Amino acid sequence: MTPFLFTKILRRPILAFCSILTSAIFCILLCLLSDYVKRQKTEFESVRDNFPIECVVSNVEGTSTKNLNIPSQYIMYVTKEQYPLTSYIKNLCMTKNFSYQWTDIERDNVGTMIGMNQLECTKELSSEYNGKITFYDWYNEDFLKEERAVCLVSTAMAQKILIQEEENRFLNLFVHDPFLQIKKEITLQVVGEYESKSSDLYIPWGYCCNFMLENSDTISCDSMSFLVKENQKLNELKKEALNMFVSIDPTEQTPSYHFALIIRDEIYFSTLLSLEQNVKRLERIMPLLLGLTLGIGGLISFLCVRTEKKSYALMRTLGVTKKEVFLASLSEQMVLEIIGELTGILFFLLTVSKNTSLPVLFLLLYFLCYFLGCCFAVYHTAKVSPAQLLREEE
Amino acid sequence: MSVLSIKEVSYQYKNKYQTVSALDGISYEFNLGKLYAVIGKSGSGKTTLLSLLAGLSVPTKGKILFHETAMTELNLDEYRRDHASVIYQNFNLFPLLTAKENVMYPLLLKKMEKTKARQQAEEKLCSVELTKEKQKRMPAQLSGGEQQRVAIARALASEAEIILADEPTGNLDSENSKNIINILKELAYKEKRCVILVTHDNKAASQADSILHIKDGKLEV
């Protein structure tokens, strides 16, 4: 190594600082961009895998998703494992509506008794919509998994029937369903109340099915919806669904027993497309940045070494070989670059992003591009003829 | 035996407009322990001669022999490091190194240990009468005469047999010029070096053992 290599660097602090700063800034930019691309890719994957795509059963015209009287066959399609559709769906919601009338309080007091398999089936009870439920005794939301004659009432209804007294927690109702031709008197135990002025009662799906079977030998539901289990298998779900559901036909005039499946995937695809395009756009910038580094490396080195031409000629007259002059100059530039790059990396890790890994490949490419730029600039400057010193004086 | 001899040496180079014949068939022999002066007008070829003797350029025709060995057969980087040293009109010190570091440089190139190189550099600088305080200064903080003495100390430190001085007093006043010439004379006679001085100064040239006149690329002894 030629003598006083690092001494010379330290004695040009401003030039050294500018060189280090430029290298650090480029390094930070590269890390930031790479980190952003990585996060966008992660978001893309997250959306692709986890975005909730809702599928709702409707009539053939696509105009109604409630009061459909969906027969048991469709319920089997989505609940029995022998049917392939079940492997593509999750969070199945089914509801069944009955009309009820009080038998023992006020005869003109009517409402809807709704059987459902989970709280998310209705906005009033759903946690997503901040549904507030207060359960009595040891009961909780698992009450819907039971087959017992229990129910939830609204707070307004609870006040009306003086629910504080335990004996008032048993409701005697007259229940009616025109489709299944059921008319029966039942007794339900109130296990909780939900915040609302509604007259709707909510009962477990299990009890609801048993009730239907006891009184009509068949079960049905009035609404059905589910989420796609694996978004990447959406096309397979669609293909499977075609075996059971028809395409929406707004011109359908006559009632039919066929049903359509509305797959709400527009937002999913548009979000995915937007993210994908963003990632591609950013990925195109990376090579540009690396190319710019090549130029910047060359330019910075050129600016640093051009004032040293005379020193290089002097070094040659003192017996330093061409190779040693080249290496000395290149080492000087690369020391500054390495310090700059390390500073940039440290700054990035400590301040900008604490939970990220470094883009090692890009940093290596960055180093390589800067190195090539330096080599080019230094080579042209360092191959000075030693005789030049004497000629300049003539 | 001569340390350096030039035999029918010619040197041509091309500039933008024409091919210039800087030297034309020069022959001469240089020995150790002598002071030589090369004089001539500007553009006569004296700096070109110095450049060839320093191994900085290669003659177009003829041969230059160092201890009877043709320079074309030598490693010129080694020759410049170990056997020949150049002192310039413009001093040409490393601006980012102190006076002492400038003198240490050729010693460190020869892989000398840093402590020893520092010691020797101090000795050489003292021998050219540069105080210890001034040895720590950067070249820009020294006068012209002091800078030239540092350059001479650097040439001394390299222990080169051949000292080539290109107008060493060109940028100095008469007092400093006189001092520099005296130092060069001491180098030639006491240290037994071969000192070749290129100069316009006839007074300086008159103190040399031999004077070479170069006129239009030809030598007139």
Question: Could you explain how this protein is built, in words?
Answer:
The complex is a heterodimer of chains A (394) and B (221). In chain A, helix 2 (13-50) runs antiparallel to helix 7 (266-305) and helix 7 (266-305) packs antiparallel against helix 9 (322-352). Chain A has eleven helices and twelve strands. In chain A, the strands form two sheets. In chain A, strands 1, 3, 4, 5, 6, 7, 8, 9, 11 and 12 form a ten-stranded mixed sheet that branches. A two-stranded antiparallel ribbon of chain A has the order 2-10. Chain A is of the alpha+beta class. The radius of gyration of chain A is 38 Å and the shape is elongated. In chain A, a hairpin with a 4-residue loop joins strand 7 and strand 8 (182-194). Chain A has two domains: 5-45 and 279-393, no CATH class; 54-264, no CATH class. By secondary structure, chain B is α/β, with parallel strands linked by helices. Chain B has a single domain (32-58, 75-220), classed as Rossmann fold. Chain B is globular and about 50 Å long. The A-B interface holds A 2-4, 7-8, 11-12, 310-311, 314, 316-321, 385-387, 389-394 and B 42-43, 47, 50-51, 54, 56-57, 77-82, 86, 88-90, 92, 94-97, 101, 104-106, 108-109, 158, 166-167.
